[in-house]
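Pasting as-is:
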Amino acid sequence: MGGKSTVLRQTAIISILAQMGSFVPAEKARLPLLDRVWTASAHPTTLARGRSTFMVEMTETAAILHSATPRSLVLLDEIGRGTATFDGLSIAWAVAEYLHDSPEHAAKTLFATHYHEVTELAERLPGAQNYQITATEREGEVVFLHRLERGRASKSYGIEVARLAGMPPSALARAREVLQRLERYELDVFTEEETAIQLERTATAGADSHSSEARQ
């Protein structure tokens, strides 16, 4: 098994084979009947017409959100990657929530992302689960196991992939330095957010208490 894109392609192909009444490449499979298989991707023909990759992706994602049904299969790969990091993360988060929560459009969905924050949705949404393409570290080297397993990824190996691709050591060292700074900043941001949420809840609880006392 390859990476996340391979998992998405395999899922689509197996689902379509099953719909046709064909055999599927598995020891066993339990598959539902589907009305459609939806994907979002930028096509060269649309890019040639002057539409950006991100615009094409958003147009196709919008069509999915409007048209998918609980009997649909939705395969989304890196939604939001074509814009600023926080914009992309916000869009990915909202799309995942919508496909989970909407009574009319809550489709069966595989949502591949490198936004680690999105994996928190599995703790908040009862119908969401995290899976990861596994990797391990041996003697300072990253070994990609090419297996899909339950659970959220603990870290990203993007810089290690860049190393395997032959990026100069000085550039890799600088990338690690910048990554550490960005991770510290991100942690600071989320710490502030959690503090603000707790303060808001405390204030709300205090207001409710005062209101109850006033009624008595």
